[in-house]
Amino acid sequence: MRFERLALVGCGLMGGSFALALRRAGLVNQVVSCGPDTAALDKALRLNVIDAVAPSAAQAAQGADLVVLAVPVAATEGVLAAVAPVLDADALLMDVGSTKRDAVAAARRVLGERLSRFVPAHPIAGKETAGVAHADAALYVNRHAILTPLPENPAELVQRATALWEALGARVRCMDPQAHDAAFAAVSHLPHLLAYAYFEGVARQDGDGDFLALAGPGFRDFTRIAASDPVMWRDILLANRDEVLDQLQHFRQALDGFEQQLRAGDAATLEDHIRQVAQARARWHLGAPPSQSR
Length: 294
Prior knowledge:
The protein is α/β, with parallel strands linked by helices and about 290 residues long. It has twelve helices and eight strands.
């Protein structure tokens, strides 16, 4: 498996890391990128993340046998529409977005006869620091890469997408788009929203700066993801709004349980509740198969 030309639409952390990982694996001859941030593209050239810059997504995708969209999820439909007329009949087209139902719906609206070439993907990796300067060839190693194949996808194309992510070191899992969005609303999207809200709640009452000045590693670790990119997370939260709102209800129920025990001063029940949660968390570890995470 080798690709002659990767068209990388968007060259930030995720896209740049994909290009570097593909290079390190020896799976690509040329990487051409495009995007609105000319400074980022210039930096990507200087860092040898990409080989050339194209003036548009369509021109980048022209003649490419691999096209990867590493753009904010709200931009997915526009980019798909731009590349559809020039997409090679045998090309593999993927995104790396954090929501999948909206990506699939967008593809169905604009890809036409090239719909079968689109294999939606979501690598579960990232950093708080955005931008191509932080791109890392090892970003996807030992991380999950979720594929949400379409019924229209040829089996060999899904196999090729799977082999590609595995060659970058990822562990591939296929899911239904709706199941994907429900799961990641719970374990990714809601935690970011809660981190933003919690940090804001502390900062707003911290008139003299004492609260934040006294914060330690626990506060740092809990709020780490509150430093994540606001534009990206605005788009993700809105794209997966219904699932995030549903998860907020589950969180409120759990929080209400703790609040009731605190108000009642019920030490035994509170301790038992904490113990159950602590034991469940102790059994869980990052990347564990589902049967080992319960």
